[in-house]
C-alpha cells in the first residue's frame, strides 16, 4: 500500500485485497458491463446486479462480518470500487452510497441495535440505503437546510421538510437523514436520524432525468409530520453536521475510486483504438499528438490512483484523512473528466456516437466533479487545511 507522512512505502497488496478486487472485476465484466448500455438507455435500476454485489460482500466491504459485511479495509474498498466503476459508473454510485455514506456513518456513530437493524440489511444487499443531506436551496452550504425535526413531549421527533438529489431515493428502504433540531444554533443544531421509507409521512418525488449515471435512481424526498423515535437518532443530538462531514470524507474516497474506474475504462478503450485505427497508412497511435495525449492520460490516471490509495491508507490507520480525501477526490474527478474528453476526441465521430461507450464515460465522469463536494469545495478544504486560515 501507499503509506504517508514519512512512513515506508510498500505498493504490494495483500491476498485478501487482491481477492476482493478479483471478485469485483469478475462481476463487473460478467454482469455489470454487458448490461450497462441497457440501464443507461432505460434508466432502469439494476436491482439484480446489486443483489449479486451484496451476496458477494461488495455492498458492505468495510462492514465487519458480524453485521453482514466483508470485513475488509479501505484499500480493498478502493480496489473493488474501481473495478465496478470500470464496468458501469451508475452501479458504482449505488455501491459508494451504501458503503461510504450509509453503512460508514452508522458503524461509527450508531448503537449496537442500529447496526444490527440497518447495517446488516444493507451490507447483505437485501435492502438499499440512502443519504439525505442536500436540499433544493442548500447544496455546498449544508447549514442552510430547512428540514426540521421538532422534539415532542414524549421524546419523539416530528419531521417536516424536503431533501433533493437523493441517490437511490426511489428504491431505498432506509435513509440517514439530517434535519435541524435547534435552528438557532446553526451547524450545532443539526441532528442525524435513521428513517424508514415505508413509514407514514415519508413521500418520494419524481425520479430525476440525469445527464449521466442514469441507472442510479435519484429523486426528492419529502417529510410531512414524519414521526422519528428517540432510538432512531444517530449519534448525539446536535452532532449531525459533524457526522455528515466525517461521512463525506469517506464518501470522497469512494467517488475518487469511481472516477478512476471511469477514466480507466475510457483509457483502455482508447489504447485499443489507437492501435487499430489507421490514417495516412499507419495506426493513429503512431502520431506524436496522439502519443502525447496517451502519455498525459496515463500520468493523470496513475496519479489519481496513487493519491486515492494514500487517502484510503491513512483512513485505515485511524488517522484524520480529510485533506487526503479532498486531494484524491479533486485529482481523480478532474482526471476522469479530462481523460474521457480526450478519449472522445481521439475516437472522433465514433467517440460522439452512442454505438460506443465513450460518450457514456464522458457523461458519467462529469458528476464526479460535483457530488459529495464540488471541485471548488475540495479546493477550499485543501487550502484551509494547508494554510490554517478560514
UniProtKB/TrEMBL annotation:
Q: Which family does it belong to?
A: Belongs to the acyl-CoA dehydrogenase family.
Which cofactors go with this protein? FAD
Highest taxon listed in the record's lineage: Bacteria
Q: Which PANTHER family match?
A: ACYL-COA DEHYDROGENASE, ISOVALERYL-COA DEHYDROGENASE, MITOCHONDRIAL-RELATED
Keywords for this entry? FAD, Flavoprotein, Oxidoreductase
Taking every annotated instance into account, which residue ranges of this chain make up the domain Acyl-CoA dehydrogenase/oxidase N-terminal?
14-125
Q: What protein is this chain from?
A: Acyl-CoA dehydrogenase family protein
Annotated Acyl-CoA oxidase/dehydrogenase middle domain residues: 130-225
Q: Cite the Acyl-CoA dehydrogenase/oxidase C-terminal domain residue spans from the record.
A: 238-385
Amino acid at each position: 500500500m501507499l503509506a504517508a507522512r514519512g512512513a515506508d512505502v510498500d505498493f504490494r497488496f495483500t491476498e485478501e485485497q487482491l481477492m476482493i478486487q478479483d471478485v469485483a472485476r469478475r462481476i463487473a465484466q460478467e454482469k455489470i458491463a454487458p448490461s450497462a448500455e441497457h440501464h443507461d438507455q432505460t434508466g432502469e435500476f439494476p436491482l439484480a446486479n446489486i443483489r449479486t454485489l451484496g451476496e458477494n460482500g461488495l455492498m458492505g466491504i468495510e462492514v465487519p462480518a458480524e453485521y453482514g459485511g466483508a470485513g475488509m479495509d479501505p484499500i480493498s474498498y478502493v480496489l473493488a470500487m474501481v473495478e465496478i466503476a470500470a464496468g458501469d459508473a451508475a452501479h458504482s454510485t449505488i455501491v459508494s452510497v451504501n458503503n461510504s455514506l450509509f453503512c460508514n456513518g452508522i458503524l461509527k456513530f450508531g448503537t449496537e441495535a442500529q447496526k444490527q437493524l440497518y447495517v446488516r440489511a444493507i451490507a447483505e444487499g437485501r435492502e438499499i440505503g440512502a443519504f439525505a443531506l442536500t436540499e433544493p436551496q442548500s447544496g455546498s452550504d449544508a447549514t442552510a437546510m430547512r428540514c426540521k425535526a421538532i422534539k415532542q413531549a414524549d421524546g419523539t421527533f416530528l419531521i417536516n421538510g424536503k431533501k433533493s438529489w437523493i441517490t437511490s431515493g426511489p428504491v431505498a428502504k432506509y435513509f440517514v437523514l439530517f434535519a435541524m433540531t435547534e435552528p438557532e444554533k446553526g451547524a450545532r443544531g443539526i441532528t442525524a436520524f435513521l428513517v424508514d421509507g415505508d413509514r407514514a409521512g415519508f413521500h418520494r418525488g419524481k425520479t430525476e432525468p440525469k445527464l449521466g449515471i442514469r441507472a442510479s435512481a435519484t429523486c426528492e424526498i419529502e417529510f410531512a409530520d414524519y414521526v422519528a423515535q428517540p432510538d432512531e437518532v444517530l449519534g448525539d443530538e446536535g452532532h449531525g453536521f459533524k457526522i455528515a462531514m466525517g461521512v463525506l470524507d469517506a464518501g470522497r474516497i469512494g467517488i475518487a475510486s469511481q472516477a478512476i474506474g471511469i477514466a480507466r475504462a475510457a483509457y483502455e478503450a482508447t489504447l485499443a483504438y489507437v492501435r487499430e485505427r489507421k490514417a495516412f497508412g499507419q495506426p493513429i497511435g503512431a502520431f506524436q499528438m496522439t502519443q502525447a495525449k496517451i502519455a498525459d492520460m496515463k500520468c493523470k490516471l496513475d496519479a489519481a490512483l496513487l493519491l486515492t490509495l494514500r487517502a484510503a491508507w491513512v483512513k485505515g490507520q485511524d488517522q484524520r484523512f480529510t485533506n487526503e480525501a479532498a486531494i484524491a477526490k479533486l485529482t481523480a474527478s478532474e482526471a476522469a473528466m479530462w481523460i474521457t474528453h480526450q478519449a472522445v476526441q481521439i475516437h472522433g465521430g465514433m467517440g460522439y456516437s452512442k454505438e460506443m461507450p465513450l460518450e457514456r464515460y464522458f457523461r458519467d465522469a462529469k458528476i464526479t466533479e460535483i457530488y459529495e463536494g464540488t471541485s471548488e469545495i475540495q479546493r477550499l478544504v485543501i487550502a484551509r487545511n494547508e494554510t490554517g486560515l478560514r
